[in-house]
């Protein structure tokens, strides 16, 4: 297969040859600027390390099946996503272990799931118990980090848990983090009510990410010090950001990207399981939620309290360009190169020998998704759209 497109990193027109699931050749070709205008951009496919579900299915459901896991991860093809971390949020041990076991089984049984799942992200249950930073995580299951508890979960997951979000506010956190990192798990900080010292101790122990910095936080914070400044200033922490236009105001995105530097920023969709459903009211674990006409997902009956995210990662790419003034290459790298490096993987860079996991898209594009994805290619197969 041969593709002609504009490289996302250099804007040059190139012909990419794909053989046996890999890029075998990349040639720069002469063109006139009129032709280039109509060509799509080509980039290493997007990686989304925080996806709670899609289309009415939560990964955290206590009844999720292998086929449902498969359906959700494949539905991300239309957004140019070639790698995903299915994300389970705070729950009882039985429900969490069922979730990770089912995702692991889906990877074992289905090659197409294995090709798409980078690893499991567990967000909680070792998070803050206070209203505000706890977000929508159920209080009865929030608890301090416990290595024995986590080890049993990782066993149920057959080792597929690659990312764990916890609060550093617990005394047990530094020793737990050091042990998790030694075992190969990337540790992220989030949903916290932690002091500067606790954050520093967590980072000294090996924590390397702030999960959705600026969200899952108190409605009101002491002006300084506070855990947002502490994490913003800590160069050993990358930060994942939900740049859907609703979770963080433009000026906050701009300040975070400048403060962290683009190299330490990672875009996530944080898709709720309700993402992708039509406008209307839905029951979610006994709580009534509503999808508004502007795409926001809120607690039903009001318009302020967000209950999850519903914009794809391409919206984040387009918004971070508009909000923070970064270029296309930088924004796309926040949704591909940076998350893979965080997880210790080597990202593809449109070079011969790289796995052919690619996204072809139009930008700018007048669409709620931010980008117009023309095709998604995984291991050399066109899994969405056409080339
Ligand atoms: Zn969260």
Describe the structure.
The chain has one domain (45-345): Metal-dependent hydrolases (TIM Barrel, Alpha-Beta Barrel). Helices cover 29% and strands 26% of the residues. It has twelve helices and 21 strands. The protein has helices at 33-38, 66-75, 93-109, 111-116, 147-156, 173-182, 196-204, 227-233, 250-260, 313-324, 328-334, 337-342, and strands at 2-7, 13-19, 22-28, 41-44, 46-51, 53-54, 57-58, 81-89, 120-123, 161-166, 186-189, 209-210, 238-241, 265-267, 280-284, 287-291, 297-299, 306-308, 358-362, 372-378, 381-385. The strands form four sheets. It has an eight-stranded parallel beta sheet with strand order 5-8-9-10-11-12-13-14. Strands 3-2-1-4-19-20-21 form a seven-stranded mixed beta sheet, with no helix packed on it. A four-stranded antiparallel beta sheet has the order 15-16-17-18, with no helix packed on it. Helix 2 crosses helix 3. It is globular and about 60 Å long. The mean pLDDT is 96. Zinc ion (ZN) binds at residues 123, 135, 190-191, 212, 216.
Q: Which ranges are low-confidence, i.e. pLDDT below 50, for 5 or more consecutive residues?
A: none
Q: Calculate Rg over CA atoms.
A: 20 Å
Biggest sheet details: 8 strands, parallel
Attached small molecules: zinc ion
Tell me the number of helical segments per DSSP (H or I, 4 or more residues long): 12
Name of the CATH superfamily: Metal-dependent hydrolases
What would the average pLDDT be, to the nearest integer? Answer: 96
* Quaternary organisation: single chain
**Secondary structure: helix percent:** 25-40%
- Domain tally: 1
């Amino acid at each position: 297969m041969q593709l002609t497109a504009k490289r996302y990193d250099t804007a040059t027109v190139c012909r990419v040859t794909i053989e046996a699931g890999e890029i075998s050749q990349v040639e720069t070709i002469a063109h006139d600027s009129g032709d280039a205008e109509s060509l799509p951009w080509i980039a290493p496919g997007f990686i989304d390390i925080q996806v709670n579900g899609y289309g009415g299915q939560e990964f955290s459901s206590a009844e999720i099946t292998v086929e449902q896991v498969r359906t959700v991860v494949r539905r991300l093809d239309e957004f140019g996503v070639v790698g995903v971390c299915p994300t389970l949020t705070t729950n009882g041990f039985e429900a969490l272990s069922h979730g990770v076991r089912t995702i692991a089984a889906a990877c074992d049984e289905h090659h197409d799931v294995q090709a798409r799942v980078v690893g499991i992200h567990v967000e909680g249950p070792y998070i803050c118990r206070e209203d505000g930073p706890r977000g929508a995580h159920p209080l009865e299951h929030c608890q301090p980090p416990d290595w024995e508890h986590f080890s049993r979960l990782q066993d149920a997951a057959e080792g597929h848990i690659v990312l764990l979000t916890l609060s550093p506010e617990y005394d047990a956190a530094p020793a737990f983090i050091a042990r998790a990192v030694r075992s190969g798990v990337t540790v992220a900080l989030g949903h916290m009510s932690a002091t500067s010292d606790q954050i520093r101790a967590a980072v000294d122990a090996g924590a390397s990410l702030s999960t959705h910095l600026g969200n899952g936080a108190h409605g009101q914070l002491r002006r300084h010090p506070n855990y947002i400044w502490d994490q913003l200033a800590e160069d050993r922490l990358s930060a994942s950001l939900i740049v859907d236009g609703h979770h963080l105001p433009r000026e906050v995105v701009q300040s975070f990207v400048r403060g962290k530097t683009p190299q330490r920023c990672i875009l996530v969709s944080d898709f709720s399981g309700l993402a992708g459903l039509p406008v209307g009211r839905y029951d979610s674990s006994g709580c009534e939620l509503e999808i508004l006409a502007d795409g926001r997902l809120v607690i039903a009956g009001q318009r302020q309290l967000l209950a999850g995210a519903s914009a794809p990662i391409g919206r984040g790419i387009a918004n971070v360009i508009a909000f923070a003034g970064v270029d296309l290459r930088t924004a796309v790298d926040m949704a591909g190169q940076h998350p893979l490096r965080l997880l210790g993987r080597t990202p593809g860079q449109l070079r011969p020998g790289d796995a052919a996991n690619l996204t072809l898209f139009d930008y700018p594009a007048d669409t709620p998704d931010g980008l117009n994805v023309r095709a998604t290619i995984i291991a050399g197969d066109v899994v969405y759209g056409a080339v």
